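Students often ask what a 'structure token' actually looks like in practice. Rather than answer in the abstract, let us consider Putative manganese efflux pump MntP, a protein of 183 residues. Its sequence is given first.
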Amino acid sequence: MSGYIGEFISLLFLAVALGLDAFSICLGLGMQRLRLKRIAIIGMVIGAFHIVMPSIGIFLGKVISGQIGHWTELAGGVLLFVIGAQMFFSAFSHEKQRVIQPIGAGLLLLAFSVSMDSFSVGLSLGISGVKTALALGLFGLISMLISWAGMLLGRKVRGVLGVYSEILGGSILIGFGIRLIFG
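Now compare that with the structural description of the same chain:
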């Protein structure tokens, strides 16, 4: 029983870490003073992409897992570490990013871009053999809720938390990567 609770808590923290990337983007979107209906749609699309992308990653991870055997946990840990490091260090990039309008194809591109890290995490989770339905449900739900929170907070605050959320999310992924590698 405690093994299930531990896995749930680990997946919950991982879902929050993945959602923090969407949070930082949605914080900026919220500063455009979007209507509440648009905020709801954007959050649902981002949540759906955080289910689809790791699904593809988990499927490919399970296929790869059969090929590389006992190295799977190490590979998953290294992958999480690299993704987390990329998130962490991208927070310090001073390059100006173009603003994508969250309508139509722009919304799909936005949701795809913020869910790319969840594809990679899904790949490493598929390699390590995690409970798929639980992971995907948490990834989708948490990223949707965090996206909504980011946009609503963005309506109130002007860009103070954006960089810090990416640093926190990257740090959490790095921690899970190290845990898989050494634990």
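One point worth highlighting: The CA atoms of residues 81 and 130 lie 17 Å apart. Ask yourself how you might have guessed this from the sequence alone, and why that guess would often be unreliable.
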